[in-house]
Amino acid sequence: MTxxxxxxxxxxxxxxxxxxxxxxxxxxxxxxxxxxxxxxxxAAAEPALSAENRAAVRxxxxxxxVAGEQQRGGMRSYPPLRWRGREYxxxxxxxxxxxxxxxxxxxxxxxxxxxxxxxxAATDGDADGxxxxxxxPCLSLLDAEVEPLIEPNLPxxxxxxxxxxxxxxxxxxxxxxxxDLRIMTAVLEARARRELAEQGRTEGEADAVLAHEAKSVxxxxxxPGGVQRYDIGTCFELAKPEN
Length: 243
Hints:
The protein is 69% helix and 0% strand. By secondary structure, the chain is mainly α.
């Protein structure tokens, strides 16, 4: 059997280069360069990184990898990083720019961090192990820098899933995914109404609560980060079949 190198595994398994480029493309307010970080050419030589900045840049690259894999359904043992990881990267880049770095120098630093993780995976032959070693201290830095995700309640989950259904149905029509989201929305709404009734709320009051939370979710969805600022996993837990 042909042995696949750690470097090949890292690229193939995590879509490393594509993930970094995709994450950076989501940060137009901080980084305006169009080229992928990994393939950026002609960047100015970056200043020396402090130990603190080096850790922040390395963690930014690690968060991009994990967030990309989570978007494909993997790496669920780590907390959701699509919004928080991106926000951490934004703040890291902004901090370096505020310290006098150019956008090109920030890009080069991020590129070097990505290449360093890639090289370490190639040397160790264990991409998972590289992330297992990097992520615990990085998550501590994340928790200190970026606020946690909002834990939604039942009415909020109802609104979140309804927004998701509307978006998917508009794009795909009556697809299986749209059907599943419609069912989940109905389940969450029924449970939200039951919970409100158990609290002594009338049907009209329940309607008002659901409408209020729908407005709140819509406002969050329109802000930077969108519904990714909610811990969507909570909604899936609340929609699970009851025993």
